[in-house]
Each structure stands twice: as structure tokens, then as C-alpha cells.
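Small ribosomal subunit biogenesis GTPase RsgA structure dump, as promised
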Amino acid sequence: MTTTADPLADYGWDEGREAEDDLTALREAGLVPGRVARVDLGACDVVVADGPGVRALRTDALPGVCTGDWVMVDPHGSPRPTQAQLLPRRTAIVRGAADGGSQGQVLAANIDTVLIAASLAAEIDLARIERYLTLAWDSGAHPVVVLTKADVAYDPEVQAAVQATAPGATVLTVSVVTGEGLDPLRALTAGATTALIGPSGVGKSSLTNALTGGEAMAVGETREADEKGRHTTTTRQLIPLPGGGVLIDTPGLRGVALSGAEDGLSQTFSDIEELAGDCRFNDCSHEAEPGCAVLAAVEAGDLPERRLASYRKLLRENEWMASRSDARLAAERTKVWKTRSKEARANGIRP
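C-alpha cells r here:
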């Protein structure tokens, strides 16, 4: 880790955060800022400043806190240090609930860069990359698609296809065996908070070890038949990087549902939305309308039909999740109204 005036600076703390959150009263009450490095079984490891360096405290977890969050901590709490307040998040990776519910799940908070890992040793799933890109763009961070295992297989056409699938994002080809692409990747992650996401078996743990310069994560073998791997990362954890900054490694994601990701969809499919601006009708659904610029691009071979199908699918899914959220909010409002009406009747007041 680099030496800085504030030992938490390497973990992402800056003067702007101190000012925007107005922590004077909290500090005067004896609270200190800390960053959540790991959440496990209702407790957290929180990194706080300790003289010229840092130390980790084990605290009880505030409701909803996740790896990467900044919290104010009472280091003298009993029987152990306690978290007193969750500070506002600047960015957050949020996926839809795995059970299809309306509540999203925060995977990591206050991140600057999202590394989306995909293995060149297996067939690249462009639709999956688009889904991850939507999640990353919607978080407010910058996405970087990392094509791993370039020493096992490399096809320039595959890289070109991924680049076309990721307008505005950075695409890097790397190999932890030969070192290819690692220097530019280290430059992108230096001094920043980086989250690493992707399915199991694509080399996330090996990539983490390469970036941290050690054996921070256990590495599992992949099956030769399909290059699929086992879950060697079981929880999200924040790991310091040698040149400053931190990396949040995450367990392999089997499924990634969207949750209110309109902005992410717009950026992931910016090429389609730009074409849509030339459609004859403002509410064109790009299905069969006359004068549809999107369908014309597909017919001309300028836009892959697969990409349009992926866009439609994610758009429908996001709209469905939004409708479930709206229904949940409506149900909660109805519940509050019924409670108030019951209380009013009990007090002899007609609602």
C-alpha cells in the first residue's frame, strides 16, 4: 500500500466525502469512519485508521450494509466496536432478487470500476456480457470487460465481437500465465475501488491474485469438458492493492436479474437507442413498424439480430421488475392506510 497523509485514502476516503457528509458532530461524539471489508453472519470486518496505518475491527452489521460501504464506528463500543451510521453511497451494484422478488440486492458499494470477467477458453456468451454491462453501467461506475485465459485460446474476431457488444466500455485481453494485458489493467485499478464480477470458472480468483501480487484467493480447477469452475470465492471481500486502491472480489454469479436498470440499458445498448432516434414513430417498438431505423439496420447487416433480441429481452425483464416494485409500494401504501383507518375508528374518528 502507498503511504498517504490519511491511511484510509488508499481505501477510497477523500476530503470530498468528509465535506459532503458533514461528519463534525459524529467525530465529536467519538465516532470514526471505516470501510466495510467483509460481511458475514450478521457481523462485519471494518477497516479504520490507526495512527499512520489501519486496523480491522469486528463489528455488528447495520441492516443492509454491504462490502464497500463507509460507516461511522464507535471503536469503544461494548462488548465490541459498533457501527453507528451508514454513510451515503456514491455508487452501488444492485441486481434483482434471486427469487424474483421486487427488492434488489446490493453486491458492492462505492465502486469506481467494474471488471466483468469472461473466459476465452470457453464460448463467449455475448448476451451474458450485455447483462453484466447493464448492471455495471447502472451502478454509476465504469465497466471494463476482461477477457481472461488468452494463453489458452485467442481469436481476434471474438474480441471484436465483444468490443461491438460493449460500446463505451473498455475491453482488455489478459493472461495471468504470460502477463499479457496485466499492466494496463493495473493502471486502470490503481488508486480506485474496483469490483470484479462474473460467473464461476472464468479466472476471477487468479486475476485477483495477479492484481494483488499474492495468494489472496484460493484457485479452483475447471472441468476440461466445458471449462466450468467451482465456487472458490464464497463471500464478497475488500482486498487492498499494492499501488493503492482496493479490489472487491465477488462469488461467481449464476444469475443476474435486473432491478430498475433503465440507465444501464440505455448505455449498454446506446447503438440501438441512437438508431431509434431515426425511427418514423417516437414510440416505435422495433417489431414491425414501417420506417423503423433499428429493423433497417438489422436488414442491412449493420446491427446483429441477436443484439436486438437481447435488448428486447432485458427491456421486458426490467419493465416486469419495475411493475413488481410498483405493486409492492402500492401494497405497502394500502397497508398503512388500513392501519390508520383502524386506529381512527378505534378513537371514534371517521376516516
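Residues 217-233 have pLDDT under 50 and may be disordered.
lmk if u need the other ones
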